[in-house]
Amino acid sequence: MKKITFVMTFILLWSFNSYGQFIDEDFESGTFPPAGWIDEAGPAHVPNGTADNDWAATTARSNSPTNSAFFNDFTVNNDKWLISPLIDLSGAVNPELLYWDNVNFAEFAGTHDVLWSEDYSGSGDPTLATWTSLYNTVVEADEDTWMQRGPFAISPIVGTGDEVYIAFHYVGNNDAEWFIDDVLVRNALTCTPAIGSVTLVEDCGNQEFSIEVEVTSLGDSGTVTISNTGGEADETVNSVPTTVTIGPFTTGTSVGVTLEHDSNAACNVFLGNTVDSCPPPTPANDDFADAQAIVCGSMMSGETDSATLDEASANPTTAAYGVDSDAPNVWFSYDSATEGAADVTISLCGSNYDTSVAVYTGTSGSLTLVAGFEDNEAACGVFSVQSEGTFSANGTDTYYISVEGYSAFDTGNYVMNVTCVPLCTAPQTNMDCASATALSVDGMTTTQDNTCATVNPTQLNCDLYHSIADVWYTFDAPASGQVNIVTALGTASAAHIAIYEGTCGALVELECEDDATSSVSLTDLNAAETYFIQLWNNGTEEGTINITLSDASLSLNTIENENAFTYFPNPVKNELTLKAQNSIQNVSVFNMLGQEVLRAKPNTLETNLNMNDLSQGAYFVQVTINNVTETVRILKQ
C-alpha cells in the first residue's frame, strides 16, 4: 500500500455562516467576475484585448479541482484590480480578512497588494480612493504553493462609516501569475482551532484507499470530533498527538475530513477533500480472451485510457490496411455463423481520440488480419481522426475486432456503432491488378463502379490513413505517348487515382492523386505499352465513377481530327478561349470536387468563357463537339 501525505492543511471550514461572516467567495458560481465583484484597470494599465489581460476564473493550481480567481501577467504594463462587493461591517466585532493565494514565478513578481477602502465609489479608477494596505502577498519562499493568508484585522476609520471594499491589486510587466481563492471576511474568532493533517493510504490492488488523520493540537477544545463525507462513523480525539485511520473507501471517491471543535463551530477545521490516484480498473474486455460479443445494431461505448495492449504481435511487421498493434486496445467478437453473411460497418465517429480498428480471424497468438480502418473524414467529418469502415463477414467465421488508437499514446473515450447489410455480391471482376479491365484512350467518358469492392490491405504512398476499396484498369499508350486521365463523380463521393507501369507484382508508380476527383497528364509514355490504373475510395464512399482517357496530342488543331480544338491561355486569369473546326456544342467546367460551376452552349466555332468569378485552383473543362466529349485541365490564377 502506498501513503501520500497532503501538505495542505486547511485551517477553517468556510461553509459555516453562524459566526458573523460578511463575505465568503470561492469563485465557483460559474460567472466571472462573481456578482458584485469588479475587474478594474488602474491608470498604468495598457489593455491588449486578450484574456491574459484581465482577471479570470481557472482550475489551474487550485487547492482542489475547483475554480480560483487568476491573473496572468504575460503581457506588458498591467495594473489590474479585483475588487469585492461593498461589505457592510455595521455591527461587526473585530472584522478580519483571510484568503488563500498562490504566486507562480514569484521571483519576477511586482506589486501583489491586498487593501481595503471606505471611500471607493464602486467603479472607475481605484487610485482616486484611499486604500489601506493589509498585506503584500509576494514571498519568494512560497513559490507556486497554496498559502493561507491572514487573519488581517480590518479597522474602519472612526466616523466615516462601516462599509468597505477589499481589493487585490496587481502591477507588473510580463512577470508572474497570481491565483486567489476562498476569500473570507468575518468577525475575529474567540476560539482556537485544532491542528491536523491527512495522509492518503492507497490499496490500488483492491481498488480502495484509507485516510490517516493526525491531530497534533486540540486548540482550546477539550475534544475534537473527526467527521467525514465518506459515510464512516465519527471518531473522537481527546489527547494529542493522535492518528486515526478512517475507511476504506472505494477508489475514485472524494472524501472530505473535518476536525470539529466541541463547543464552537466557527473553529471547525476542514482538512480538504482527499481522493486516491489509483489507476481505474482495466475494461472488462481488455484482453482478447474476454472479447465482448456484439451483434448487428450494437451501440457500445467505453474507454481505452485504462486499457492495456493485448495481442501486440497480431499484425504483420509491415502494417496492412493502414493499422498496426501498438496502442492500448479493447476487444469485441462478431459471430457471423449466428448473425449470417453480411457487410458489417464499424463506426467510431463520435469518439474523442485518434482511433484505429483492426479486424481478425483465428485464435490468440495466431490471428489473421482481414480488415482495418483508420481516419474516415467522409463519414466522421472533415479533419476528423476517427475510424469507420466495412468488412465482409462470410457467415461462418467469428471475427475479432480490436479498438485502439493510431499511435501508442492515443487513448480516450470511444463510441462504437455496428450496422449490417446483406453481403454485397461484387459485380466487379477487376479488383486486383491481374484482372484489370481494359479502357480505350479515345476521349470517351465511361462509367465504372466500385460499389462492392473489397478493401485492399496495401496502402498507397499518397493515402496512408484510409481504407483502399479499389478497382483496376489498363490502357495502351497511343503513338504520341501523351494521355490525359480525368475522373468525375457519379454516385461515389470520392474518386482517387494511381497510375503504374510494369507488370503485376512488379509495378512502378508514376502518379498518385488522393483528391476527391483527379486529373493526370502523362507524357513520354512508350507507344503501345500497357499501363495500369487503380481507382479507389475508402470503403464507405463507393459508387459510380466517370473516367475519361484522351490522347493529349489530339487537343491540337490538326486537319486529320475534325473534332480537334485548341484552348488558351492556360493558366487563365480572366477568359478562357476555345476554338474548333466544328461548332462547340456544350462546355462544362467542374471544380476538384466534381461540382459543375460553369456551363455554356455556344454552338459556335469559337467561344470565350468568363472565369473571373471562379476561385484560384484547378478545374476540369469538358468540351462537346459533334457529340464527342473531351476533358482538359485548366489552372485558374
Automatic annotation (TrEMBL):
Signal sequence coordinates: 1-20
Record domain Secretion system C-terminal sorting: where: 568-631
Source organism superkingdom: Bacteria
Keywords: Signal
InterPro entries named among the record's database cross-references: GBD_T9SS_assoc, Secre_tail
Residues of the T9SS-like galactose binding domain: 429-544
Name this polypeptide is given: Choice-of-anchor J domain-containing protein
